[in-house]
Amino acid sequence: MQTVEEAVREWVIEHGPETASEFVATREAFKAGVEFAQRWIPVEEELPKAQYDGRYSNEVLVMMSNEKYIVAWYDYKYNKWEVGLWCEDSFTVTHWRPITLK
Question: How far apart are CA 77 and CA 18, in angstroms?
């Protein structure tokens, strides 16, 4: 897997900015976009969008207060995170991010 710096270098070389200032601007914009896409979203800031009948979110990767990670979804009817066929009250979700499939 590439680092952000390697991906930036590859993209900049492929798209060849013509001047030094274009190179710097392009590099910084690409890097900012990659970092934004990899950002963990605090639950105080935003919850995943509701899907289906408006009750559940899509599955997302969540970071818990005990610094462990799990795939879960948010149940808007009961205002809680769910995992599998059961609700988990014994953990606190602090951040989440979409699951990107390639």
Answer: 54
- In order of 15, 57, 79, the CA distances from 52 in angstroms are 40, 8, 16
- CA angle, 36 as apex, 32 and 38 as ends, to 5°? 120
* CB hemisphere CA count around 8 (13 angstroms): 16
Query: 3-class DSSP state for residue 53?
Result: coil
> What residues in the chain have per-residue pLDDT under 70?
1-2, 4, 15-18, 34, 36-37, 85-90, 101-102
Q: Work out the end-to-end distance of the chain between its first and last CA atoms, rounded to an integer number of angstroms.
A: 13
**Tally of residues, the chain:** 102
Tokens of 87: 């609700």
Residue 96's closest CA among 37, 31, 48? 48
Residue-range domain boundaries for the chain: 4-37, 42-98
